[in-house]
Amino acid sequence: MRIEGTIPFIRQEWRFLLFGLLLSFWSGPGQTYVISVIGGHIRQDFNLSNGEFGAIYTVATLLCAAMLWKGGPLVDRLPLRQFVFKITLIMIAAMLAFGFIQGPITLFFGIIGIRFMGQGMMTHVSLTSMARRYEAERGRAVAIAGLGFPLGEALFPPLIVLALGVVDWRYIWPGMGVLMAITLLPVIPVLIRHTTRQDGPGAKLLVAADKEARHWSRAEVLRDRRFYLLAPTAMAQAAIITGLFFHQVYFISLKGWDFKWWTLCFTVFALASLIGGMVSGFFVDIFRARRIMPFVLLPLMLGLAIFSYSGPQGYAVVVMFVLGLGAGSTSPVLSSLWPELYGTLHLGAIRSVATVVMVFGSALGPVFMGWALDADISLQAIMLASIAIALLSALLAKLALLKT
Length: 404
Description:
Elements: H1 6-26, H2 32-46, H3 50-71, H4 74-77, H5 80-98, H6 104-133, H7 138-145, H8 148-164, H9 169-183, H10 188-191, H11 201-209, H12 218-222, H13 225-246, H14 248-255, H15 259-264, H16 266-287, H17 289-292, H18 298-309, H19 315-342, H20 347-374, H21 379-400
Helix pairs in contact: 1-6, 1-7, 1-8, 2-8, 3-6, 3-20, 5-6, 5-9, 6-7, 6-19, 6-20, 7-16, 7-19, 8-16, 13-20, 13-21, 16-19, 18-19, 18-21
């Protein structure tokens, strides 16, 4: 496969790539790494245990997954500009409303709002639009748009920790909503304009490389055994990382590390995620995602092992760097794998199924780890079980792609 120059690609397509990056960045308030930073304050104010908070979070996230089943395919049918305006406005409203939650019931509905629109729809639209509009540069486009994730991971946690020293956590959410309205809504019409390079020469290169490619429907994908062998990889990554970050305050206290130091290390996580995303994006464009998929969970397994057995808090930098490499490399591979295997005509519907799987995994992590912590199961045992799950998922992915 001939690889187009990356710099000329960015120079011509920077507007649409920036659009994807902004969507992925503003998915942050609906991601676990943001919610968990305030999680300790929420549990304290509403007198919730780790398991109870995890259960509320899990049930809300599972409902989000069910909603994504219906909402995800809309990106295939509605004009992108109209659709993005709507989900942005709803996300802003959800953040404003989150500042007014008063107890477990309103907390439950608040989590549904920010999780469905943030982790769910904004992430889904960002990565689906990149994978659909580009062919030969697909891996790099997804990786560049995905830079919004590490940017959010670098900025949100430390800034929120600083804000918590000045204001009550309830004021932080409306503040983020106002900032999102200012930085995203005005630029959407400018950034989503179609260019000649999109769906242009890249499509011809892909067809020449894979003449047997066809466009699957979502129903056909659900009858394909490969999807069920690949799904555990997406689920394991989401479940383990979400569970770890959701209970990070408690985990870090078990390690005896300073939590402010840990939140500062999110910058390292973000930098490593950026590196992992760009490197895997290049590899996807060179080797195809199907060849890389069985190996994407290796950094996660290594990071969990280091976290489990490391001593002084200086190791937090190493843990966050290795985990960040894994988190960053996963998105370009997964987002490019589905169009490689199943085509682009129904990509929104197909990615919605994959997103449901990922969200389902992110729902399981907090509650199971919460129950384990409430049962006084050791940190080492939880991490080793997580490594075993990741290893099994990687073996299943290898089995799924043996003949592709």
